[in-house]
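User:
Care to share a sequence and structure tokens?

Assistant:
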Amino acid sequence: MAEPWATLGIDLLVEPTGPGLRRGLTDALREAVRSGRLTPGTRLPSSRALAADLGIARNTVADAYADLVAEGWLTARQGSGTRVAMGAPPTPSRQWGSEVAPPSGTAPRPRAATRPAYDLRPGSPDLASFPRAEWLKAARRALTAAPYQALDYGDPRGRPELRAALAGYLSRARGVRADPERIVVCGGFAHGLKLLGTVLRARGARTVAVESYGLDAHRRILAGCGLDTVPLPFDRRGTDPGGSPAADALLLTPAHQFPMGVPLHRDRRTAVVDWARRTGGLVLEDDYDGEFRYDRQPVGALQGLDPDRVVYLGTASKSLAPGLRLAWMVLPPGLAEEAATAKGDVDTCGALDQLTLAEFLTSGAYDRHVRATRLRYRRRRDALVAAVAARAPEAGVTGIAAGLHVLLRLPPGTEQSVVQAAHWRGLALHGLARYRNPAAPAEPVDALVVGYGTPPDHAWSGALDALCAVLPG
């Protein structure tokens, strides 16, 4: 029995033009290669499949392929099929003086960015340690057990399986008072912050107070929602919430301030909640790496003090991988409905990844992974602290009790030169100035924000040597 034409080969959009089918097809394929639409190495459909798609004779396609092979545009090998040649004939270009212009309609290819030899920038975990085998097992179990309706357009709050799993985990591990009905799953922290900014602006909010040190991307997201941001004072006890009584909301990292690395003092935690109750404002709690605490009992989530005034935001970006694009918000009752409405009529986060994470949480695989990586990161932190103390004593290490980064305080006036020296050595490194709010009342401090989560295990010792080589002393 002959195979139906719809099941043959791979798809290729090509429109033969000009006189004669063979010549028209040859010209169309040549132009697709010349313009860059078909890149070197691209496999083409078999002559039989393409002939069926175009409704023409198979010999016509075979002849066109043979012509382009002879001209050097294509290659054909037994068992490998027909492909665009890796060294296809160069595209004619026009000359303006000494510059060569790209062919019409073709964008110039950007130069490949040079990757650093070592990366100590904060914000990412060790991606090489992602639990692929356990994740795959969880995905298989989740997909096997999922009803077919799970693959339909879903509830904008997210899959109920994941919200139920998160409610149990967050209550147990982070002290969050969570109800699955008040959880909204989102595509990363930035997505969640944008949803909250939209809801706050619709409620009439005008100003969000932010920390003196933090990511400027968060300020840009809030500004894009029509909200002004003002910095709060910062001292050794963390952010001072009393510095902006006119704000409608506060955005804080209370468990482990980024990038200064200190937890919010217990008196300040109480003051934040008192401010929210007194003013009717909201506290947006970014618990970005709450699982990673090393030297004492974990600092519980601020949301546990008042779930009606604090919005809890968590993410899988630090504990698993940013590429999952999975985060969650635990919201007060009314705000949960508004956030779900702002997200849209259907769930915009992948159902299969949500189901897999739910299974990963309920099976205990998530806890096992976090405990294993916590031990690995603690060893890295200890090695970093010891190496700096021995080889660069002029740099003071702070913010070491938790998280995936430390703060290295430098002698005054040396931050920029150290960052530049690191760049010359192929070491990606960020200075503290990068994270300071320009309007912050705090005095500038020379320091490095060193992330020890990013390098894979085999590169950690080399990254540490490169760091110590550029530090003063």
In short: The chain has 13 helices and 19 strands. The two ends are 79 Å apart (CA to CA). The chain has a mean pLDDT of 88. The longest strand covers residues 310-315.
